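Narrative of accomplishments. A recurring question from our advisory board has been how the design workflow behaves on a single, concrete structure rather than in aggregate. To address it, we present the structure tokens for one chain from the evaluation set, followed by the sequence designed for it. No filtering or post-editing was applied between the two.
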């Protein structure tokens, strides 16, 4: 396999990993903001209920999928590291070939 193909494959893989990292980070951010908003709304309802002396229960909301996004973030980190090593190895091989031919 030509060295250029290995470099291109490593770069494509690294770019995909970078996009995955951005996507997972955005999902974590979105879930965190949503969770904070839900907590603020719940606190507001509790304050209103306390002032009106009536008991209300907070509505059940879907838990944020932060755990899944964190796993995806870690997977993409490993992908980026693996592709970085591929690029580094191809660069070293290319450097060795150039040194030999000169």
């Amino acid at each position: 396999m030509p060295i250029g193909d290995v470099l291109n494959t490593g770069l494509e893989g690294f770019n995909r990993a970078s996009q995955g990292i951005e996507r997972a980070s955005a999902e974590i951010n979105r879930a965190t903001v949503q969770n904070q908003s839900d907590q603020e709304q719940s606190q507001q309802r509790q304050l209103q209920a306390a002032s009106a002396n009536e008991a209300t229960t907070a509505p059940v909301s879907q838990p944020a999928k932060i755990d899944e996004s964190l796993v995806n973030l870690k997977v993409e980190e490993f992908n980026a590291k693996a592709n970085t090593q591929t690029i580094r190895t191809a660069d070293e091989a290319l450097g060795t070939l150039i040194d030999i031919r000169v």
